[in-house]
Design goal:
By secondary structure, the chain is of the alpha+beta class. The chain has helices spanning 2-20, 62-77, 128-136, 141-152; strands at residues 80-89, 92-101, 104-111, 117-125, 155-164, 167-175, 181-187. It has a seven-stranded antiparallel sheet with strand order 4-3-2-1-5-6-7. The termini are far apart.
Amino acid sequence: MRRPLHVTAVLALTTGFIVGCTSEDDPPTDSGTAGEGIVTDREPDNPEFSPGEEESPEPVPGEDGAANALSTAAEELGGLAFAVDRSDDDGEELWEVSVAVGDEDVEVHVSIDGNAVVHEGEREPLEDEDRQRLEAASISASEAATTAATEVGAAVEEVDLNEHLGTVVWDVELLTTDGASTEVRVDASTGEVL
């Protein structure tokens, strides 16, 4: 009679041990079936993005927002836009655009969709190196932003006019759909991705 009680106790302990060692967080076991793509129960590092998405991150498709902001600022001020960066102005996300107007570097804040100037910021003398680079550039900042975004399939976060190995280039920083940051150089004379 002792034997069945002993077996029952061992079974109960074993079952309790197995149940206690598993949790809802454990990944499912491989069932051996193949489906379309890889499916996991794990969240991506940045929950706003899903692996495999082809669109730029929200709330703004950065390509359109940045390129539009550069074009809007240049047209509004009648100058040449040569830098853009995301900015937080009293809790409102905007694009901060630098525009060369005559001998001045004018800072302009543009709506995040890039379609309207919100307000004009500081005016400073335009630096000689910025003037020289702008004179050498035949591709606009807006065109470079669009080229880089199309090349990488990502959202533009920042554009600057620089020089690299003796060539004037647009440095375009982008954010990919998985949240990673990458940079593309666009030749400011030819529009070619370097």
